[in-house]
């Protein structure tokens, strides 16, 4: 027997397998310190981003259909796991309005599909359920009622367009 571990005292059943229980572990860490170390390692892994240091493809600036507004999509203030969209430039001066709220990652972890969010539609009294789908430099914004959805396609603004809107130095 090793000088660090005392001899076993009993057998404990563990889901069909038998595990030896030791009366004490005499190590540099101790049993409680080892538990804390394991818990901290597990918690650190849960907080790790799914995309290594990169933003999801949906994040950044998007030019609405017709080119009347530029919307910035980023993590919501209340939750890093959800996305929101705010008008950062508008031809009619409506900048600052939050038009997309609380979108959650849907399906895969690639970050190209988002659902269970709300979309503020011009002229509507309240936000409507919707989903977002990214394919290259095109964002499909869908407002849904049941299984039926109406979609519009947004595109990435050019670098000169974001510069003219005063959005230089920020993510695109």
In brief, what are we looking at here?
By secondary structure, this protein is mainly β. It has two helices and ten strands; from the N terminus they run E-E-H-E-E-E-E-E-E-E-E-H.
**What strand line-up does the widest sheet have?**
3-4-5-6-7-8-9-10
CATH class of the largest domain: Mainly Beta
Instruction: Name the beta content range.
Output: 35-45%
Percent of residues in helical segments? 10-25%
Our measurement of the CA-to-CA distance between the termini, rounded to an integer number of angstroms, reads 63 Å
- CATH topology of the largest domain: the name is Lipocalin
CATH-scheme architecture of the largest domain:
Beta Barrel
Number of strands: 10
Overall number of structural domains: 2
Instruction: Catalogue the unreliable spans.
Output: 9-23, 25-29, 39-53
